[in-house]
C-alpha cells in the first residue's frame, strides 16, 4: 500500500493553496463528427476547418457525434469504479505482472505517485500499453507481451472494446486535422497511431473525493492537485470522464480555465508530438486536474503515440507556409519519450528539441 510520508499530503495541497479557483471555460470548441461523416463534402470541410481552428487556439476541443456506444461508456465507468473500490492490496495484486513490475515501467496500478520523478497527486490509476490489436497490455509494443493483466475480466474486456472504438475515433479526428491543414497525405497523422508498433496507452484515473483537510493544508478553496499541470508527450489524447468537474486547461495568457464536465462527449488534447509535426501551428495544451469535489472523478484517456523508431519532424509543407522556419529538429519518438520520462510533470519538454 502506498502510504504518504509526513508532509506529502501538504505537497499535493500546496500548489492549489496559492492559486485562485479557475473560471469556467465558456467557449469550449465543439466538433460534431456526425456532420463530417454523412458524405456532405461542404459539411466535412467545415468540420475540418473547425478542428484546425481549435487545435490552433486552445489545442483542446470537445467531440460529439462520434458513434461510440453510450452503453459501452457507462459500463467502462461502472467497471472502473468497481475496480477502484477494491481493497488496496487487491488493486496492487491485480496488476502485479513481471512486466509491470520491471524497474522504470510506468504500467499497472498506481496511487498518488505519478511518473518516477517525485510528482504526487490525489489520484489512483491504471496505466496500460495498447497492443496492435487494440487490447490493453502491461508492456510496451516490441517488448515481451504480457497482455493479460489479471485485473477483473469484465474491466479488461470492456477496456479492449473501448480502445478499438476510441482509437478509430482518434484517427478520424487526425484525418480531419490533415484535411483541414490541406495536407496531401491525409493519413499522415493517423497512420502513426494505427501502425502495429504504435506506442499508444490507455489510462484510467480515479480521483477520490477530497479528504477532510484543515483549511491551511487545502488552501482557501479546499482544492488539491489531482494531476499536476503538464502537456501530453504523444500526438493526441482523447479523454472521457464522468460528470465530476476538475479538468482545467491553461489559456494563452497563462490563466487557468475550468472545463465543465460532459459525460456525453469526448475531449481531445493536442500533444507535444503533434505540435512538432505541425511546426508549432497546433498547440500542445497544458492541463491539470484539481480535486475539490466530494464526489469521485473517473476519467479514461487514450494517448495515441507513434512507433518508437518513428522520426518526427515538422512537415515540410507547414515549414514552407511558415516562411521556411523549421521550429523543431528531427528526433525519434523513442528519444523524445526517454527525455520526457526524465522530467517532472510540469516541465517544458519541447524546449530541448527547438531549433535555435
Ligand atoms: C503525461 C501523459 C500520460 O499520462 C503519461 C504520463 C507519464 C506517467 O504518468 O508515467 C509522465 C507524464 C505523462 C509526462 C512526463 C513524465 C511521464 C509522468 C512524468 C512525470 C503516461 C505519459 O506518457 O506522459
Report on the structure:
Helix content is 32%, strand content 22%. It is α+β, with helices and mostly antiparallel strands. Strands 2, 3, 4, 5, 6, 7, 9, 12 and 14 form a 9-stranded mixed sheet that branches. A 5-stranded mixed sheet has the order 1-11-10-13-8. Strands 15-16 form a two-stranded antiparallel sheet. It starts with 7 loop residues before the first helix and ends in a 16-residue tail after the last helix. About 3% of the residues have low confidence. Bound molecules: gibberellin A4. The site of gibberellin A4 (GA4) has 17 residues, from strand 5 and strand 7.
Regarding quaternary structure, what we see is single chain
Distance between the termini: 46 Å
Small molecules held by this entry: gibberellin A4
C-alpha geometry: globular
Name the helicity range. Answer: 25-40%
| Secondary-structure content class | alpha+beta
Rg calculated over all Cα atoms: 20 Å
Spell out the helices and strands N to C.
HEEHHEHHHEEEHHEHEEEEEHEEEHEH
Mean pLDDT: 88
Q: Main sheet? A: 9 strands, mixed
Amino acid at each position: 500500500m502506498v502510504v504518504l510520508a509526513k508532509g506529502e499530503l501538504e505537497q499535493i495541497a500546496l500548489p492549489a493553496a496559492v492559486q485562485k479557483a479557475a473560471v469556467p471555460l465558456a467557449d469550449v470548441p465543439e466538433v460534431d463528427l456526425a456532420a463530417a461523416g454523412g458524405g456532405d463534402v461542404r459539411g466535412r470541410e467545415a468540420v475540418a476547418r473547425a478542428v484546425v481552428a481549435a487545435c490552433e487556439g486552445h489545442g483542446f476541443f470537445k467531440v460529439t457525434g462520434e458513434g461510440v456506444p453510450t452503453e459501452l461508456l457507462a459500463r467502462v465507468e461502472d467497471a472502473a469504479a468497481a475496480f477502484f473500490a477494491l481493497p488496496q492490496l487487491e488493486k496492487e495484486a491485480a496488476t502485479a505482472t513481471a512486466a509491470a513490475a520491471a524497474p522504470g515501467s510506468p504500467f499497472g496500478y498506481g496511487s498518488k505517485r505519478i511518473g518516477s520523478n517525485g510528482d504526487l497527486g490525489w489520484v489512483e490509476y491504471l496505466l496500460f500499453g495498447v497492443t496492435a490489436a487494440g487490447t490493453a497490455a502491461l508492456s510496451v509494443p516490441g517488448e515481451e507481451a504480457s497482455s493479460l493483466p489479471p485485473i477483473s475480466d469484465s474491466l479488461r474486456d470492456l477496456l479492449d472494446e473501448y480502445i478499438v472504438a476510441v482509437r478509430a475515433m482518434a484517427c478520424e479526428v487526425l484525418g480531419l486535422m490533415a484535411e483541414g491543414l490541406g495536407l496531401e497525405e491525409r493519413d499522415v497523422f493517423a497512420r502513426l497511431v494505427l501502425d502495429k508498433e504504435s506506442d499508444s496507452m490507455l489510462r484510467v484515473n480515479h480521483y477520490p473525493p477530497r479528504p477532510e483537510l484543515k483549511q491551511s493544508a487545502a488552501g482557501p478553496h479546499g482544492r488539491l492537485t489531482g494531476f499536476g499541470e503538464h502537456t501530453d508527450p504523444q500526438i493526441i489524447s482523447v479523454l472521457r470522464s464522468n460528470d465530476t468537474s476538475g479538468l482545467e486547461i491553461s489559456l494563452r495568457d497563462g490563466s487557468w480555465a475550468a472545463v465543465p464536465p460532459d459525460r456525453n462527449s469526448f475531449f481531445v488534447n493536442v500533444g507535444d508530438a503533434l505540435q512538432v509535426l505541425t511546426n508549432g501551428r497546433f498547440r500542445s495544451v497544458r492541463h491539470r486536474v484539481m480535486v475539490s469535489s466530494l464526489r469521485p472523478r473517473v476519467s479514461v484517456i487514450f494517448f495515441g503515440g507513434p512507433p518508437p523508431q518513428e522520426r518526427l519532424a515538422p512537415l515540410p509543407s507547414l515549414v514552407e507556409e511558415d516562411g521556411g522556419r523549421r521550429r523543431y529538429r528531427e528526433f525519434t519518438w523513442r528519444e523524445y519519450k526517454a527525455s520526457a520520462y526524465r522530467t517532472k510533470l510540469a516541465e517544458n519538454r519541447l524546449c530541448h528539441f527547438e531549433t535555435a
